[in-house]
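Problem 12. The chain below contains 414 residues. Write out its predicted structure in token notation.
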Amino acid sequence: MDEPTWCRDALALARTVQSPAELVAALKAHHPEMPMPGAARLFVELAEARGRDVVPYLLGHLQAVAPRWGALGRKDAKGFPELLALARARDWDDVWGALLRTSAMAETYDAEVLRLVQDDASLPARTRRRLLQLAGAGGEWNLPGLGLARVQPLTDATATALYARFPELVRGPFRMHVALSWHAAYPKLVMRALEAHDEDLLDYLASRAAMHLPATGSAKEWEKVLNAMAAHYEALPKEGGVFARRAANALGALPAYSMWTFDALMEKNRLARLFFLRSDDFYLAEPRAVRDLLEAPQIHVQALAFRLLGRDSAKAREVAAQNLDLLQATLLRPLHRRTRHAAFDALANAAAHGVEAARVLVPRVRDAFALPDSRYPKESLMALLARMLARWPELRDATEVPHVFGLPAKGDGA
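Solution.
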């Protein structure tokens, strides 16, 4: 179906189908599978003809309105400004918010947020409610084992202005819109958060800063941000687990699959070095922080916890035993070889702490030998089991009791 035919049929339905529910169902049935450049203009005509009757259809198909390429770069879709103005004039906040999240250029979205923040004529409650309509993902792509969300970013100036007026929105629903990335380090927002001692926002921003490898174009901004945040965390009290809990909060917010160049990151990112390489003793002194690291979605953070719990110290063995429920699951998880060996060391420490922990782990280790993965390091698994049984011989079964054969002693009748 071509675009003129679709537009003609949709407008005919708007004129002839009187029931709102039947109209929405018919419009959905006639919606083309291929993208149509003039979708926004048709949506304007439908809204002018039937008003709120077509809103359920619009909300379900706003992804059909997409930015286009022009001679000077990307620009909003044809008909987008008219559709946005119509939604704003009729106070259709649901359509207005979804349209900006889903279909607007980043510059258009940012300008609309800034306009609301600077609107002193409206009541703060109304402004806040309209801002909430703009928060959140505008689209998703879901693959087996992987999901991606598209979020409109704010500029540093707009984010700072929003934080000055509605700080709770920035640390809450809008924080995904101020995620530090290759295109923006948000130096002004970071400095404001540091001045306000906003722990929640700082830990979130630190989680994004710690996974970033500064690029050439924004190196100076990133150097300023990383140095300021590293200095903030370095100055936190180490006593009482303050630093460990804050650092674990930041690391726990790292998304899965967000680090691909770990060694380069340790070389060039001062904040990442502080979190991953320079704070082992502080984490171990705060068991709750270690558990947060174990439960983090990012595998490098979990590997840090395995390394901590595999250290040759009484404290590491004690904390490992406290996290037996999480550690035993590593026997069955798919892990890279180096990470698995670190997990084995943590399991050995947990078993060494007490016979009850070992009594739980030994059957799990035996079960792991049945795993079909040909790359599973069974020789290392055997060594792990041997360490446990050597430490606690009462856990051996009949086939694991060593038998020593030799020449008979004199007088045995041989």
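Discussion. The longest strand covers residues 139-143. Students who got a different answer should revisit the alignment rule from Section 12.3.
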